[in-house]
Amino acid sequence: MQKIVECVPNFSEGKNLQIIKQITDAIESVEGVQLLDVDPGKATNRTVVTIVGEVDLVVEAAFRGIQMASTLIDMRNHSGEHPRMGATDVCPLIPISGISMEETAKYAQQLAKRVATELSIPTYLYEDAQPNKSRSNLSVIRAGEYEGFFEKIKDPIWAPDFGKAEMNATAGATVIGARDFLIAFNINLNTKSTRVANRIAFDVREAGRVKREGNPISGKIVKDENGEDVRIPGKLKSVKAIGWFIEEYNIAQISMNLTNYHVTPLHIAFEETRKSADERGVRVTGSELVGLIPLQSMLDAGKYFLEKQGLSSGVSEAELVDIAIKSLGLSEISHFDPKKKIIEYILQDPKKSKLVSMTVKGFADETASDSPAPGGGSIAALSGALGASLGTMVANLSASKRGWEDRVGEFSPWAEKGQKLKDELLFLVDEDTRAFDGIMAAFGLPKDNAEQVAARKQAIEDASKYATEIPFKTMQAAFNCIPLLKEMATNGNQNSLSDVGVGAICIKTAVRGAWLNVLINAKGLTDKVWAKNIVEQARTLLAENHTLCDEIVKGIEERLDGLD
Fold it and tell me: In a 3-state reduction of DSSP, which class is residue 314?
C-alpha cells in the first residue's frame, strides 16, 4: 500500500500571481505529486496550496516550494491581515492512507531539519510533530509574528527546533508539523431558519453553547468564578459547527469542520445531527462535502449503514462507497463523483490496473496474444482472486440466508476478510506483469562501458528479485484464503458447498501456479542464498496449501456424493 499524505503549505504572497506560479511550478516539478488547489488571498496576502501524493514525493515537493518561496518573497516588505512569521508561514503534513500519524510526524521533522540546514531558515514543529506539547499550538508559536520574532527567537524558551536562534531577515521562520485531515461537511435541513440551524449546531459541536439562567435562549449568561462564560458542551468531540442560510440552495445548513475524523467519523456527525434535528422538528435531507475526503472515511460510513440495516458489510469497496453516498445524501444538491472527491481515487494511475479493468474476454484475448505478459503469474493471481471471491460470496449468502438473521455478525467479518484478500490478489494480477516489464527494462539498459555494465547487471538482479517476490506474495495471499473457505465449508450455507469447493481448487491452482513463477525467476539470480531462502519458504507453503485444499475438496465431495 502506498503511503499517501496531503500537504497544505501557506505562502506569504497572495497578490503577485507570477511569484505564486513560480512556487507552484517548483512543487509540480516533482513527478507523481498532484497539485489539488491554489487559493490566493489579496487581503491576507497569503496563498494556501494543497498537494497530495506518496509521502517521499510530497516531502520533496514541499521542500522545493519552501525553497522557491525563500528566494522570491522578502518578508521585510510583507503586510497582510493574516498572522505570519515567514515566507512559508506554515507547512502541515496530513496522513491520508497507508501511513500513521506517528510516521507522518517523523517525515515532518525530517523536512523541518532539512529546511533549517539547507535553507538557513529557523524551523519550529507543531501539532503531532512537536514532542513538547507546551509549544505545539500554532498560534502560540506564531505570536509576535515576523516583526517580533527577531527578539523572540533569542529567548531560550523559543529557540527553534532546528536551525540557529537567529531570524532569517528575508525568509523569516517556518512552522512545520503533522495534523489530522480536516473534513468540511455541510448537512442540509428542510428549513430556512438560521436560528434553528444554529440551535442544532450548538447541540452537536464540541464547544456546545453558553449556559443561561432560566430560558436557554434569552436567559442571562452564567459566568464562572473568573468571569468567563460557562458552556454546556455538545455531543461531538473534534467538531466545529455553525448554522447558516444558503441563498443558492434556499435552505439552511449545518456547516461542520471535522478536525479529527478518527474521533468523530463522518457518519456519526451526520447521525447525531439528524437526531438533534428530529428533536427540534426539523428533518435532515442530505449533505454536501466541501473539498476532498479520504477513502477510509467513506468505507467506514458504508459499513456503518449496512450494519445498521442488519446486512453484511463484507461487500466490495465500490458498493461501500455507493451505500455511503446514498445514506448520507451526498448527491442531493449536486452529483457526488467518487473519482473527483475521494483522494485515493484522484491519485489512481489507470495503468496500474490495466488488466483487472478489462472485460473477461479482453483479458483472455490479451493473454492469448503473442505478448509474453500477462502470463502464468498474473493468471495464478487471478485464480486466487476468484477463489477469494467464491469464499466471500458464500459468506455473504450465509449472512443473508433466511432464518439466519442472528448470524450476520458471524459471517460478515469473514466476508470483509475475503474482500481484502480478493483486492490484494487483484493488485498482484497487474503487479506480476509490471514486475516482468521491470526485468525487460533492466535488460534494455545501456552497456557501453564498465560502469554501465555493472549498473545494468545490478538492475537486472534487483528486478529479478522483485519478480520472484511478487508470485511468492501471490502464494501467501492465496494461502490466506484457506481459513475462509474452510469456515464456509463447515458452517456456511450448505447449498453453496460446490462453490466453496471450486474456490479451494482455485486457491490450489493459484499457489501452485505462483510457485512455478517463483522457481523460474529465482533460477537466474546471482544471489543464491537469497534465492534458496525464498524457494524453501515457498516450497513449505506449497505443501501445506495442497494438503489443506485437498482436505476441503475431499470433505465437500463426500458430503455431495450421495448416489452410491
Answer: coil
Partners of 356 in the β-ladder: none
Please name the residues in contact with 390: beta carbons below 8 A apart, sequence gap of 6 or more: 485, 499, 500, 502, 503, 506
Contact 182, 262 (CB under 8 A): no
What CATH number does residue 290 fall under? 3.30.70.670
The angle at the Cα of 482, spanning 542 to 321, to the nearest 5 degrees, equals: 125
Are 32 and 127 a contacting pair, CB within 8 Å?
A: no
Q: Which residues of the chain have pLDDT under 70?
A: 1, 562-564
Distance CA 146, CA 144 (A): 7
Say if residues 264 and 238 touch (Cβ distance below 8 Å). Answer: yes
Residue 457 sits in a domain whose CATH number is: 1.20.120.680
- Which residues sit opposite 46 in a β-bridge? 41
Which helix (DSSP H) or strand (DSSP E) does residue 256 occupy? strand 251-258
Report cis status (omega within 30 of 0) of the bond before 374: yes
| Domain encompassing residue 193 | 183-347
Angle between helices 266-279 and 317-328 (to 10 degrees): 20
| Shared-domain flag, residues 265 and 164 | no
Task: Measure the CA dihedral 128/129/135/140, to 10°.
Answer: -80
Q: Kindly report the three-state secondary structure assignment for every residue of 508-551.
A: HHHHHHHHHHHHHHHHCCCCHHHHHHHHHHHHHHHHHHHHHHHH
**What pLDDT shows up at residue 563?**
52
Catalytic residues: 82, 432
Pick left, alpha or beta for residue 43 (phi over 0 → left; psi -120 to 50 → alpha; otherwise beta).
alpha
3-state SS, one letter per residue, for 321-359: HHHHHHHHCCCCCCCCCHHHHEHHHHHCCHHHHCCCCCC
Asked which of 291, 314, 347 is the last residue of a domain, the reply is 347
Which cell goes with 218? Answer: 434569552
Cβ proximity of 315 and 415 under 8 Å: yes
Q: Which CATH number characterizes residue 85's domain?
A: 3.30.990.10
- The pLDDT of residue 43 is 81
